[in-house]
Amino acid sequence: MKAQEVFNIVANKYDLMNDVMSAGTHRYWKECMIDWLEPFVGMKIVDVAGGTGDVSTRFLKRIDGLGEAVVCDPNSAMIEYGKKKNEFANKIKWINAPAENLPFENEFFDAYLVSFGIRNFDDMKQSLKEAHRVLKVGGRFICLEFSKVQNKDLSKLYSLYSKIIPIFGKLIVGNEKPYQYLTKTIEQFPTQEKFKQIIEQSNFSNVEFRNLFNGIVAIHSGWKE
Ligand SMILES: C[S@@+](CC[C@H](N)C(=O)[O-])C[C@H]1O[C@@H](n2cnc3c(N)ncnc32)[C@H](O)[C@@H]1O
After folding, report:
1. Has this prediction a pTM greater than 0.85?
2. Mutate to test the pocket of ligand 1, among 6, 7, 134 (most ligand atoms within 8 A of CB)
């Protein structure tokens, strides 16, 4: 199953499924990402794989709408759903494009955000190259993604839980396949350390990561010098 088919199927139940699967904790994880970003008035961000615009909304809320957010996503179903439900829909600029080929000038943004998106990219290294290109010097790359649970017992429990996720998919979306895809991409995604190295190899400096919930998710941050 391809990423685009997955998000076409789940678009109108996307936010509900996120709440069900994570018991609402994706909201907290996204807030942690925005905390670490430290938004400022006038900040210009691109929210790549931004989907329904959840992260951009959180960013704009922090600065009372006094910044610029561009949601960039190749899936029009996700964007259309986001435009309908999003309280900052008119403030956000919605762009239909993939991470591998961003339609922006060089050195345009203060920050590049990607939340639960990078593991779906067809070409992660090309996307990181694009991230580096569109950032201003002194700009920030920040990524929230499912990662590797550190504690062995918890990791076993989490693997069991992952097997149940497609059942939620069947019940709520009417199709388990997108959620089989989800768990497969999580398993295949590199460890925190390995992903840190990949970001460094893409010319970012001062790369660091923070684990949340024992590494169920991690936030990686790097700077363009
Ligand atoms: C799990 S959703 C994340 C949405 C949002 N960032 C969030 O955290 O709620 C993943 C998004 O990645 C997008 N996506 C898939 N392949 C992509 C690519 N090559 N470039 C950019 N976005 C992509 C999908 O269309 C989908 O909207």
Report:
1. yes
2. 7
Residue nearest to atom 25 of ligand 1 (CA): 75
Cα–Cα distance measured from residue 39 to residue 80, given in angstroms and rounded to the nearest whole number: 26
The pLDDT of 112-135, averaged and rounded, is 97
Average pLDDT over residues 108-135: 97
CATH topology of domain 23-148+191-223: Rossmann fold (3.40.50)
C-alpha 156: how far from chain center = 25
Determine whether the shortest distance from the Cβ of 56 to ligand 1 is under 6 A.
no
Q: How deeply is 105 buried, as exposed, middle or buried, from its count of CB atoms within 10 A (0-12, 13-18, 19+)?
A: exposed
Give the domain ranges of the chain.
23-148+191-223
Which residue has a Cα nearest atom 10 of ligand 1? Answer: 117
Q: 5 alpha carbon to ligand 1 midpoint, in Å?
A: 12
Dump pLDDT digits (tens) for 168-208: 888 888 888 888 888 889 999 999 999 999 999 999 999 99
